[in-house]
Write a structure and sequence with these properties.
By secondary structure, the chain is an alpha/beta fold. The chain has 16 helices and 15 strands. Helix 2 runs parallel beside helix 3 and helix 9 packs across helix 10. It folds into 2 domains: 176 residues, 3-Layer(aba) Sandwich (glycerate kinase, domain 1); 251 residues, Glycerate kinase, MOFRL-like N-terminal domain (Rossmann fold), CATH 3.40.50. The termini are close together. The longest helix has 18 residues. Strand 10, helix 12 and strand 11 form a beta-alpha-beta unit. The strands form 3 sheets. A 6-stranded parallel beta sheet has the order 6-5-4-7-8-9, with helices on both faces.
Length: 443
């Protein structure tokens, strides 16, 4: 039965990944007719009215999204520039591709962002600009405002990741110290007609949060940024130039990000072409086909990873005891994105940490298995998407001299699961719609 559960849980996860394929998502949303009209969602554009079509983008899924646009528009593309994560590019004919650092931005990302801005700044009202945005786009377009260096921005990202700030909070600060985020890329594209295709990797699909909303009106303010620093007590850890800039913004001596009603958004179409819900629905269909009574817990899961793991495993225990909320054989699926407050010096990510915390809670339980994986194929600064654990995981670790609780305390989930050969390895998936968690219980 254990072998069957392991096989089934991977099938369910892979079904979720397949549904998040970014190339297919673009092809579902964008169609070119024989009379030279481009349909994007519910809107239609007469390509004869434009002198050029420029395509830019950033994110872990930018390359397959660009590949789809290249197939649809071909030689009509007059210029194409995208930035993606190292190892996530594809051979494209009409695009210049920059590979850059994620989650901590680097010089390559800085150069790629400048190339994108240069292309957009040459645009006029006769240009159609298509912007391709997916998860990771925020770190991959790291052009800071004047007086803030790339090193300042790298340090800012590291501090925010380490303190346990969620993606909404991280991106609020990123937007306000960026030259392209928080609607500023739309400013560069103006007065061109701008179409933004978005693969969502954030809870609730908030447009101004995905990749820090480069073409979206920004709802956050400088005051929100300072509240985040105070909430996590990290003002003293931030680079002085960043803190000083944010304070000047609060006092009105630095310009706010563009808000709703700004004319730069007058000719701007925003369309979400894929999100976590697609992956979750596909995973549910696969689990049901495999014979499991399946329940989607939520696609909005967030919070401290270890706490979230305890809630999930409490549901496992309830199912085993009472058959609620679904009878065995049962499958519980959830999506979203948790956070990890780093206390140790080990190697890992939120998905592996979730599974390690869950493994401790389900120790000794028979016919139970847990998987958590990032749909982008990477978890934290590692080559694993996540991990898998069952009721024997803790004991198997002890047999290798590895104490699960000690490894969890040190945030060292990667090395724990590595020795057990229970890392979830997918390689680059070329997509990113947050995390997918699957819990299976045999009959």
């Amino acid at each position: 039965m254990k072998h069957t559960l392991r096989k089934d849980i991977r099938k369910i996860f892979d079904a979720g990944l397949k549904a998040a394929d970014p190339k297919q998502a673009v092809c579902r949303a964008v169609h070119l007719s024989t009379d030279n009209r481009l349909r994007v969602g519910e809107k239609e554009y007469d390509l004869g009215q434009f002198n050029g079509i420029k395509v830019v983008g950033a994110g872990k899924a930018a390359a397959p999204m660009a590949a789809a646009i290249e197939e649809i528009l071909g030689s009509r593309i007059s210029g194409g520039i995208i930035t993606t994560k190292y190892g996530h590019s594809l051979p494209l004919k009409r695009f210049t591709i920059t590979e850059a650092g994620h989650p901590v931005p680097d010089e390559a990302g800085l150069a790629g962002t400048r190339h994108i801005l240069n292309l957009l700044e040459q645009s006029d009202d006769k240009d159609l600009i298509i912007c391709l945005i997916s998860g990771g786009g925020s770190a991959l377009m790291p052009l800071p405002v004047p007086d803030i260096t790339l090193m300042d921005k790298q340090k800012t990202t590291q501090v925010l990741l380490a303190c346990g700030a969620n993606i909404h909070e991280i991106n609020t600060i990123r937007k306000h110290i960026s030259g392209v985020k928080g609607g500023k890329l739309a400013m560069a594209a103006f007065p061109g007609t701008l179409v933004t295709l978005i693969l969502s990797d954030v809870i609730g699909d908030d447009l101004d949060v995905i990749a820090s909303g480069p073409t979206v009106p920004d709802r956050s303010t400088f005051a929100d940024c300072m509240e985040i620093l105070e909430k996590y007590n990290i003002t003293g850890e931030m680079p002085p130039h960043v803190t000083e800039y944010l304070k000047r913004g609060v006092h009105g001596t630095e310009p706010e990000t563009p808000k709703s009603g700004d004319r730069v958004f007058d000719k701007n179409q925003l369309l979400i072409i894929g999100s976590s819900s697609l992956s979750i629905d596909a995973a549910r269909e696969e689990a049901t086909a495999l014979g499991f009574n399946t329940l989607i817990l939520s696609s909005f899961i967030e919070g401290e990873t270890r706490d979230v793991a305890k809630v999930h495993t409490a549901i496992i225990k309830e199912i085993l005891k009472s058959g609620n909320p679904v009878p065995r054989p049962a499958c519980i699926i959830s999506g979203g994105e948790t956070t990890v407050t780093i206390r140790g010096d080990g190697l890992g990510g939120r998905n592996m940490e979730f599974v390690l915390a869950a493994a401790i809670e389900i120790e000794g339980l028979d016919g139970v298995i847990v998987l958590s994986g990032g749909t982008d194929g990477t978890d934290g600064p590692t080559d694993a998407a996540g991990a898998i654990a069952d009721g024997t995981t803790v004991q198997r670790g002890l047999a290798q001299g590895y104490n699960a609780s000690e490894f969890l305390k040190n945030n060292d989930s990667y090395h724990f699961f590595e020795v057990l050969e229970d890392l979830l390895m997918t390689g680059p998936t070329m997509t990113n719609v947050m995390d997918l968690r699957i819990l299976l219980m045999a009959s």
